[in-house]
Amino acid sequence: VELCLLDEVSFAKLSFPSDAPLLCTSPNNPGAEEMARDLAGGFRPGLRPAVRCTAPPVLRRGLRQRSNRSGGGLDLSTARAHAAAGHIFVLYLNSDTWQGDAGSALADEVRVARQSGMRIVMLHENDPGHGGCAFARFFQTTPGDLIDDGLFDQLA
Prior knowledge:
Layout: E1 22-25, H1 32-41, E2 50-53, H2 57-68, H3 77-84, E3 88-93, H4 100-116, E4 119-124, H5 138-141, H6 144-148
Parallel strand pairs: 1-2, 1-3, 3-4
Helix pairs in contact: 2-4, 3-4
């Protein structure tokens, strides 16, 4: 994958505070696993993050807990421990993101990840041949509560 960054930093200078993190992707986020693997492949061996294409177990447990409780809050203690382990949720933004039932499930996973303090790395696809679209589209398709909660604040 070719990355273009303003004031680009070479991969040789990139490092993590401890062991390389686990990059978690959701099966509800089309293309996320492939992009996370491409991103991880750009790091030197030893610094290369592992990629797991499934919503982290903590997210799935959190979603079940929330759906099984009537009006109860989400127990985030396990989720916070997962976040403390340094796992990163990769959110791939393309024309399919947030669409249909998969989009609703993805939104729930992102909510739990944010509530737990898990870091989220967003990758915006620009190539129309791969579902790329203008970033402005996400202000129309992303659930309003995620926008209001600041999902895109550091990007926009």
